[in-house]
C-alpha cells in the first residue's frame, strides 16, 4: 500500500511501475498458457501417428522401450506381467487422423482437463487388472516351437524326443533360398535377427497365440500390411476363394478378398453356409478376440492391394491367372477355382486395380506344428431340412460333459468362450475348431476362419449361444471381462471402434459400420442376461479359473 505521506509524483511513479509489472505478468501468463497447451496436446496425439518399427530392433525377450522410458529396454517382457505398452502405440495408425469415431476428438479437443488425460478407453481397458492377470509360469514344453542351435544340436536328446517336438534347426536357415526376390535368410538364435512372422511363431504357447503386450503383434501386422508381395497362389482347403501371399523374408499370409460392399447385410433367404465370406469380418474378429482377452486368432490386418501387379503379374498359379478378366466397367477382376462362388458371376474386382483384402498371419507349417481338427459338438446341420441333435435335446450338454475331452480340463469352458465370441459377431459357421497337436487336450482352441461373421447387424442369432444356455457354465475371467465391457467406461462398441482404427483400411472406411458396433453392445447384454438366468437356476455356473 502507498503511504499517505508520499508526494503526488512518487505516487504516480509507483502507479506506473505497478501497471507495468501487471501487464508484464499478464503477458507472461498468456505466453506460458499457450506453450503449456501445446506441450499437453502433442504427446497425446503422437502415439497414434507414430509409425511402428518393422525391423527387428527389439527381440522377443527384450521389452519394447516406450518413448517415455527408454531405459526400460533391457527388462524382460515375455514371461513377466508388465504394464501394456504396445497397445499405447497403435500399429499402422497413420490413418487414425480420419477420426471416424470421435475417440480422438474426446482426447484432444474437449477442454484443458481432458487434454492432460491422454489414456483412451482402449488403453484404460488393457491396463485393467483383468487384462493383466499373472500368467502361468511356462515350462519348455509349453512353447509350440523351440530353437535348436548348432551348439545344442547333439545334446543327447533321443530321436523320438526330437520328432515329438517341433524343432527349428538354426543350421537350415543359413542355406538361403535361391528363389528370385527372396531375402537371404541368415537368422541365428538371436531374436533380433528373426523376421516378425518367425517371432510370432516362436511366441506361441500352450495357452495363447500371442502375448498381447508383446510389441511383435504390432510389428507383424505392420509387416503384413507393407511388405512387397512376391507370390500369390490359391490356398486349397475350405470352400471359398483365398490366396496365399508370400513376402521377401519368407513370411506368408492368408488373403481373403472383399466381395461385396461392407454394409451389405446377409440375404435373409441365404443359409449361413451359403453366405459370402467378408474380409472385414476376419479383421474385426481378430480385434474382438483380443478385446475379450482370448488371444486365440492369428493377427489379421487389412490392406489395399493391386490385383494386377500384386496378383496377376506375379502369380505362378496358372489356374488362377486364367480367371482374370476386365469387367464392362473397366475393372480388373478374377474368380479363381474353388467350390463356392468361383465363377464369373461372382468375381472379385479391383477399382480398377485396387482391392481391399484381409491378410491373416499364417500359423507355423503343419510339418513343424501339426494341428488337430475337432468337430464342434454344437455343429449345425449343413442340410437345409435336418436338425442337429443339440437342437432336439435340451439336455444335450449332459451328454457332451460326459465325453472326453469335454469331461475334464478346460475344454468345455473353452468351447463356451468360443460360443460367446461367435454370438457377439454372429458367426454361425463354427463347424470345427483346431488345436495344436503338441499340447494334447490341455491347450487353448484356435478360432480360425471368421469370414462369415458380422453378416447381419439388425438381428441376433440366439442359437449360437446354445452351448452356454444348455451347459450354464462360463469362466470367471471371461464373465468379469464381459461385465467390464458392458460398463460405459469401457463399452465394447467404443473399444472395438478404437481398436479397429489402428487398421490401415480404417482410412478407406470404418472396418465395422456403426450398426455392427451397436449390435455388439446389444449382444453383450444378452450374454450377461443369459448368465443371470443360469445363476438363478444353477449353483455351478462359474468356472473358477481365477480367485482374484
Ligand atoms: N492363419 C492361418 N494359418 C494357417 N492355416 C490357416 C489359417 N487360417 C486358416 N487356415 C487353414 O486353412 C483352412 C481353410 O481356411 P478357412 O477355414 O478360413 O477357409 P474357408 O474357405 O472359409 O473354409 P470353410 O469353407 O470351411 O468355411 C482352415 O481349415 C485352416 O486349417
Ligand atoms: Mn469360412
TrEMBL record:
Record flagged with keyword Glycoprotein: yes
Cofactor: Mn(2+)
Active site: 429
InterPro entries from the UniProt entry: FAM20 (IPR024869), FAM20_C (IPR009581)
Single GO BP term: enamel mineralization
Compositionally biased tracts (Acidic residues): 156-168
Localization annotation: Golgi apparatus
One Gene Ontology term of the molecular function aspect: ATP binding
Protein's name in the database: FAM20 C-terminal domain-containing protein
Organism from which the protein derives: Gasterosteus aculeatus aculeatus
Amino acid at each position: 500500500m502507498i503511504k499517505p505521506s508520499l508526494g503526488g509524483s512518487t505516487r504516480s511513479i509507483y502507479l506506473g511501475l505497478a501497471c507495468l509489472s501487471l501487464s508484464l505478468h499478464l503477458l507472461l501468463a498468456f505466453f506460458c498458457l499457450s506453450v503449456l497447451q501445446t506441450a499437453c496436446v502433442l504427446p497425446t496425439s503422437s502415439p497414434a501417428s507414430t509409425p511402428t518399427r518393422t525391423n527387428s530392433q527389439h527381440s522377443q525377450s527384450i521389452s519394447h522401450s516406450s518413448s517415455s522410458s527408454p531405459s526400460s529396454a533391457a527388462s524382460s517382457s515375455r514371461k513377466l506381467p508388465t504394464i501394456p505398452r504396445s497397445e499405447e502405440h497403435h500399429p499402422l495408425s497413420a490413418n487414425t487422423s480420419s477420426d471416424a469415431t470421435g475417440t480422438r476428438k474426446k482426447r484432444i479437443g474437449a477442454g484443458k482437463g481432458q487434454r492432460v488425460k491422454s489414456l483412451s478407453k482402449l488403453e484404460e481397458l488393457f491396463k485393467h487388472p483383468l487384462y493383466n492377470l499373472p500368467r502361468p509360469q511356462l515350462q519348455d514344453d509349453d512353447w509350440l516351437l523351440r530353437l535348436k542351435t548348432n551348439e545344442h544340436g547333439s545334446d543327447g536328446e533321443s530321436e523320438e524326443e526330437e520328432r515329438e517336438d517341433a524343432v527349428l534347426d538354426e543350421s537350415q536357415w543359413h542355406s538361403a533360398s535361391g528363389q528370385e526376390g527372396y531375402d537371404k535368410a541368415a537368422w541365428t538364435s538371436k531374436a533380433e535377427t528373426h523376421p516378425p512372422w518367425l517371432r510370432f511363431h516362436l511366441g506361441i504357447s500352450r495357452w495363447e497365440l500371442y502375448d498381447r503386450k508383446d510389441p511383435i503383434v504390432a510389428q507383424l501386422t505392420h509387416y503384413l500390411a507393407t511388405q512387397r508381395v512376391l507370390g500369390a497362389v490359391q490356398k486349397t482347403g475350405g470352400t471359398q476363394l483365398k490366396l496365399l501371399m508370400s513376402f521377401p523374408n519368407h513370411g506368408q499370409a492368408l488373403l481373403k478378398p472383399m466381395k461385396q460392399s461392407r454394409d451389405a447385410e446377409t440375404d435373409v433367404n441365404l443359409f449361413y453356409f451359403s453366405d459370402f465370406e467378408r474380409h472385414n469380418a476376419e479383421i474385426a474378429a481378430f480385434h474382438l478376440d483380443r478385446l475379450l482377452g482370448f488371444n486365440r486368432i492369428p493377427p489379421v490386418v487389412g490392406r489395399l492391394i493391386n490385383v494386377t501387379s500384386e496378383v496377376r503379374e506375379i502369380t505362378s498359379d496358372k489356374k488362377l491367372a486364367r480367371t482374370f478378366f476386365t469387367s464392362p466397367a473397366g475393372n480388373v477382376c478374377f474368380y479363381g477355382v474353388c467350390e463356392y462362388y468361383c465363377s464369373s458371376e461372382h468375381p472379385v474386382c479391383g477399382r480398377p486395380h485396387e482391392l481391399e483384402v484381409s491378410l491373416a498371419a499364417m500359423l507355423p507349417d503343419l510339418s513343424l506344428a501339426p494341428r488337430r481338427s475337432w468337430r464342434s459338438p454344437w455343429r449345425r446341420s449343413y442340410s437345409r431340412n435336418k436338425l442337429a441333435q443339440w437342437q432336439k435335446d435340451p439336455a444335450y450338454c449332459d451328454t457332451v460333459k460326459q465325453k472326453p475331452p469335454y469331461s475334464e480340463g478346460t475344454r468345455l469352458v473353452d468351447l463356451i468362450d468360443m460360443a460367446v465370441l461367435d454370438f457377439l459377431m454372429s458367426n454361425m459357421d463354427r463347424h470345427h475348431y483346431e488345436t495344436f497337436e503338441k499340447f494334447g487336450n490341455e491347450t487353448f482352441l484356435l478360432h480360425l476362419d471368421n469370414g462369415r461373421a458380422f453378416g447381419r447387424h439388425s438381428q441376433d442369432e440366439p442359437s449360437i449361444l446354445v452351448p452356454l444356455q444348455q451347459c450354464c457354465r462360463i469362466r470367471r475371467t471371461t464373465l468379469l471381462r464381459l461385465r467390464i465391457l458392458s460398463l460405459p467406461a469401457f463399452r465394447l462398441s467404443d473399444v472395438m471402434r478404437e481398436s479397429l482404427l489402428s487398421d490401415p483400411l480404417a482410412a478407406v472406411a470404418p472396418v465395422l459400420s456403426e450398426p455392427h458396433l451397436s449390435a455388439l453392445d446389444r449382444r453383450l447384454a444378452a450374454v450377461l442376461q443369459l448368465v443371470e438366468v443360469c445363476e438363478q437356476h444353477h449353483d455351478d455356473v462359474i468356472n473358477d479359473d481365477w480367485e482374484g
